[in-house]
Write a structure and sequence with these properties.
The protein is α+β, with helices and mostly antiparallel strands and 246 residues long. The chain is built from three helices and 14 strands. Bound molecules: calcium ion. The site of calcium ion (CA) has 5 residues, from loops.
Length: 246
């Protein structure tokens, strides 16, 4: 019996070694809620207007999301993803997407978020311009003109820790990844754009390029990470713990 117990203990160690992490501990699990929101509805509101733009579409998906440890902050992340790829979806619709999260209790300096290109059949309700694109936002201006922002290029957004590091303790791996439509559209005079033949103001690399350029320079800082320890799918605090850097 003693030999059997020894073997069971050794097998246990072996299994722990296989599923463990660099710290030797198995990864902790949590959740990431993902949703668009607005920090300033007077600039851009979500599904309703408070005098600014009304945004009804924020279409994007990602490849794997990684937290980068402080010790490896200058290195591109490798290894197991902290969050599996997020399917391309409209994050301006009602309700947050909730994705499983794995993490360790180690200081992270950033999270990397590579946008995914839409390939194959379009998701239900998606605008045609999403085909081959990595980001599309749709809505209407205060004067009722429809608009579409179409971003076609590959882009990886680094959300840098505010205050130097992100450290999530046990039971603290509950986060909210937000896409702030007010940050995206700050200073973008969509009503000043030239509509196409369908009456839609399209902002892209080839249409209304000056407006698109302003949007693009805003874009990264609209990606924000907050704590959501109460797991209500909303940020716990007004200020994020990490934000996209231009
Ligand atoms: Ca919350």
């Amino acid at each position: 019996m003693k030999h059997l117990c020894t073997w069971v203990a050794l097998i246990g160690l072996f299994i722990n070694g296989c599923i463990g992490t660099e710290t030797g501990n198995p990864p902790l699990t949590g959740e990431m809620s993902v949703d668009a929101h607005s920090s300033d509805p007077a600039t851009a509101g979500l599904r309703s207007s408070e005098g600014g733009l009304t945004v009804d579409g924020v279409w994007l998906g990602t490849r794997e999301l990684h937290f980068v440890e402080v010790a490896d902050c200058d290195v591109a992340p490798t290894g197991v993803a902290n969050v599996a790829p997020l399917a391309i979806d409209n994050h301006a619709s009602e309700g947050a997407l909730v994705a499983p999260l794995t993490y360790e209790v180690v200081p992270y300096c950033r999270m990397t978020l590579p946008l995914a290109r839409q390939e194959g059949a379009l998701p239900s309700g998606a605008p045609a311009s999403l085909a081959g694109s990595t980001f599309v936002s749709t809505g209407t201006t205060p004067t009722g003109t429809a608009f579409e922002v179409v971003y076609a290029a590959e882009r990886t957004i680094d959300l840098d820790a505010i205050g130097g590091e992100l450290l999530f303790g046990e039971d603290e791996g509950f986060l909210f990844l937000g896409f702030d439509v007010a940050a995206f559209f700050e200073g973008v005079d969509v009503d000043g754009g030239t509509p196409n033949g369908d009456g839609v103001v399209v902002l892209s690399e080839t249409e209304n390029t000056a407006l698109f350029s302003t949007f693009e320079s805003n874009m990264n800082r609209g990606f924000e990470l907050y704590l959501d320890l109460d797991r209500d799918g909303e940020p716990d605090t007004p200020e994020p713990v990490a934000r996209g850097v231009p």
